[in-house]
Amino acid sequence: xxxxxxxxxxxxxxxxxxxxxxxxxxxxxxxxxxxxxxxxxxxxxxxxxxxxxxxxxxxxxxxxxxxxxxxxxxxxxxxxxxxxxxxxxxxxxxxxxxxxxxxxxxxxxxxxxxxxxxxxxxxxxxxxxxxxxxxxxxxxxxxxxxxxxxxxxxxxxxxxxxxxxxxxxxxxxxxxxxxxxxxxxxxxxxxxxxxxxxxxxxxxxxxxxxxxxxxxxxxxxxxxxxxxxxxxxxxxxxxxxxxxxxxxxxxxxxxxxxxxxxxxxxxxxxxxxxxxxxxxxxxxxxxxxxxxxxxxxxxxxxxxxxxxxxxxxxxxxxxxxxxxxxxxxxxxxxxxxxxxxxxxxxxxxxxxxxxxxxxxxxxxxxxxxxxxxxxxxxxxxxxxxxxxxxxxxxxxxxxxxxxxxxxxxxxxxxxxxxxxxxxxxxxxxxxxxxxxxxx
Length: 439
Prior knowledge:
Pfam families: PhoX (PF05787). It comes from Actinomadura vinacea. InterPro entries: PhoX, TAT_signal. The chain has no helices and 30 strands. It has strands at 19-21, 46-47, 54-57, 61-65, 71-73, 76-77, 82-89, 96-102, 125-132, 138-148, 151-156, 162-166, 181-184, 204-209, 216-220, 229-234, 248-254, 270-272, 274-277, 303-309, 312-317, 333-338, 343-350, 359-364, 371-375, 382-386, 392-398, 405-410, 417-421, 426-431. Strand 26 (382-386) and strand 27 (392-398) form a beta hairpin.
């Protein structure tokens, strides 16, 4: 019997998540069975929020801050569609900065900023930088990049900046080309609205960076045909602001015998990787994914989150559907790329019909050896955690609506978990007895 998202069947195998997993101990997201009424792992059952906003385990609380439409100063307001986020050290001791994406394209609350921070005046995307004290009190916020479009996810660089990614190839009314990656300095001093053209023009999702080689691994969420997994090999050999503006080589992944990632259904399966040079990274006349014939590259529907850890690049495919033209069905995959072995390995497969689906943004938890995952699936939306042994648990639930949760990230000291509800946009600062973790 399939497991409903809104009412998990009681008891036994019927209550188990329909998930297969690899046995690797360094897996980024491991899974196992889960009970209906309050998980036996993690922090215990969720407690209904009397305000109907965010359900959390007992002892945990949240602050809602920097909501869509809040006045920053004068006519400047907080944009909406809060998405990918990263944290950085603040300007003073015990303060923290958040750089947050806004996945708006050509509508919504328009970011208003100094002209030196605006790329395309017709676009409504961008980033906001927040500074908070140790109690998660908002000290100040400002638009830190404007005039970009559909800023979805991105990645934190080893040198302490944020790469914000445009998940678009253009829109009606644009004054400049779109589909780029931009770098944002959390201090605001060095940000330039200049696209990193070497990283290609496509519907970007996330970036994971090897801190030793500075090679960046990028995901693409696109269709007709499906998107690709990329490697950017920079000319720069030192990690520093704007290092990637020096250019480099963009390549697309090809796994012989695996034209579509959805065909892999057995966790632990490994495939050899070859990298194919992208003929025209700027996609001046043809989208990058269309510059390759089928059989020359490996494609995937709905490539999303990416994360670097354990010396490997992990990346996520949220789902795959044969009805959409994919080779096989699944409700989520997690892959890892080993640059030393030049292989990818399937770490996890979500089978359709489980309680959780649509894995998207992920962050590593400093507690218990697992991760916190932001769901972008059907119906109810959760933050899902895992133990070091792979047992999953619901850590939070969007009790307000069915909008996805995004931008999950811990503060540098690990005391606060930040996450966003995308629509209407708001950022949550979640605190509580983290050390109460049941592994």
